[in-house]
Specification:
This protein has 17 helices and 15 strands. With 465 residues, it is of the alpha/beta class. It has a five-stranded parallel beta sheet, with helices on both faces. A five-stranded parallel beta sheet has the order 6-13-7-8-9. Strands 10-11-12 form a three-stranded antiparallel beta sheet, with no helix packed on it. The N and C termini lie far apart (57 Å).
């Protein structure tokens, strides 16, 4: 049995000096070779692991046969953004986890193959050759609030169905977390921009610098459009709330990454953006956002970057690929450490993190072993602290929309399959409903809502009756 190939990446000593993409991806020969390993199962379990339910065996067979355009067309039926999902989806927990060959540790590299196809089509100017089935305009108008993965997926599918779609984005660039949350070295902005331009070609109108609930009243949106999809995400930061949180030098990961991404600090010195980065940076948390923040701080000039996590490597939520990349790049890991206080100097600047030393106890509701204090303490020197412990619902729109039901955590209550909310004609999906999740799950929610909106406006279905 042939083994799963190692996906090419740039050398660590080279890539830490810039923000260029780390993973290089397959070339044609590697892609065909990897596609040839697929067993072409009669009952493909990999498809069940894909939130978008892409016909994975079919597009892999097309790659094996050297028909890359056909492979792209197969993917595009269910996934509008394969160049994005091929880069940032946790395939190892989704489609690749359910691949039959995963039992041997040699699952097909589905994500890398998806990325290869998307990049090949773009590089060779074949995108416009794809036959996109678009229905005639039906006279209905739909507003999409938020241009992240859920909003863009919903807008694209609705446009194909013949709807007049307008997307409202609060920031000055469309893309949501794809632009402001994910670093350039993982997802280049030009790729997101390319996908956004293609959505515009479908007829979708995108208005930036518009805060629905402030720039435009919610009531005006409800009156102007026949249906509304809310996909504003969960970008508001959480903080642990320990003493010293207000010290200079303590940031949330969302603030730090947004500043770097939207103000183009990743293009220094062409864009001399005022980003302050400490010499010794402590990042609290061990999820994907923590890895992104740590690796960004390193590239932005930090001499030493540390991940501080209250559990161990076995319990961390980050993708194993991102963790390995961080280790290769020299990020230090302080396991079993729970911040108790951020310590500052007389000028009010953070100088370190006082931590409780933890041990692992019994599993909690997440299935991971619960961290328990040992009674010992530790001190980690740091002149910058970045908290990456999760995010919460964006409240700007929701505070101006009291009639829409929210759950105890502040997220919108919506049907997970259709996106239908408590307000007639209003749908929601993505992180604003589920809390922080994956890009492909948000896209899946947007696609599901688009189908439901079509059924609702065509008179086929009305959950509010």
């Amino acid at each position: 049995m042939s083994l799963r190939p190692k996906i090419p990446t740039r050398p660590p000593e080279e890539r830490v000096k810039d923000f260029n993409e780390v993973v290089l991806g397959f070339d044609e020969k590697m892609a065909i070779s990897e596609a040839s390993r697929c067993l072409q199962c009669s009952f493909p379990t990999c498809v069940k692991g894909c939130p978008a339910e892409v016909d994975i065996p079919a597009f892999i067979k097309a790659i094996r046969d050297g028909n890359f355009l056909k492979a792209y067309e197969i993917i595009y039926k269910d996934n509008n953004f394969p160049a994005i999902t091929g880069r940032v989806c946790p395939q190892e927990l989704q489609c690749e986890a359910t691949c039959i060959l995963a039992k041997t540790g040699n699952a097909i590299s589905i994500g890398a193959l998806e990325r290869f196809v998307a990049d090949y089509v773009m590089k060779n100017g074949l995108r416009d050759k794809i036959n996109v089935k678009k229905m005639k305009k039906n006279g209905f108008k739909v507003a999409v609030v938020g241009s992240g993965p859920a909003g863009l997926a919903c807008a694209a599918d609705l446009a194909k169905m013949g709807y007049d779609v307008t997307v409202y984005e609060a920031l000055h660039k469309p893309g949501g977390v794809l632009v402001y949350g994910i670093p350039e070295f993982r997802l280049p902005k030009k790729i997101v921009g390319r996908e956004v331009e293609y959505i515009k070609k479908l007829g979708v109108k995108i208005e930036t610098n518009v805060v629905v609930g402030k720039s435009i009243p919610v009531e005006e949106i409800l009156e102007k459009f026949d249906a509304v999809f809310i996909g504003v995400g969960a970008g508001a930061p959480n903080f642990i709330g320990v003493p010293g949180t207000n010290l200079n030098g303590v940031y949330s990961a969302s603030e730090f990454l947004t500043r770097v991404n939207l103000m183009r600090a990743y293009e220094f010195p062409d864009y001399d953006t005022p980003i302050i980065v400490g010499r010794k940076v402590a990042v609290i948390g061990a999820g994907n956002t923590a890895m992104d923040a740590a690796r960004t701080a390193l590239r932005a000039g930090a001499e030493k970057v540390m991940i501080v996590y209250r559990r161990t490597e076995n319990e961390m939520p980050a993708r194993i690929e991102e963790y390995h990349h961080a280790v290769e790049e020299g990020i230090e890991f302080h396991w079993l450490r729970q911040p108790l206080e951020y310590v500052g100097n007389e000028e009010g600047k953070v100088i370190g993190v006082k931590c409780a030393v933890m041990k692992l106890g019994e599993p909690d509701e997440s299935g991971r072993r619960r961290p328990v204090p040992t009674g010992e303490e530790d001190f980690i020197e740091a002149d910058m602290v970045i908290e990456a412990i999760g995010q919460q619902a964006q409240k700007v729109l929701l505070d101006e929309f009291p009639q829409i039901k929210r759950n105890k955590r502040g997220y919108i209550e919506a049907d997970l399959e259709t996106g239908a909310t408590s307000v007639k004609g209003v749908f929601a999906g993505g992180d604003i409903v589920t809390g922080a999740a994956t890009v492909i799950k948000a896209m899946g929610a947007g696609k599901g809502a688009a189908k439901a909106i079509d059924r609702y406006l065509s008179g086929e279905w009305n959950p509010w009756e």
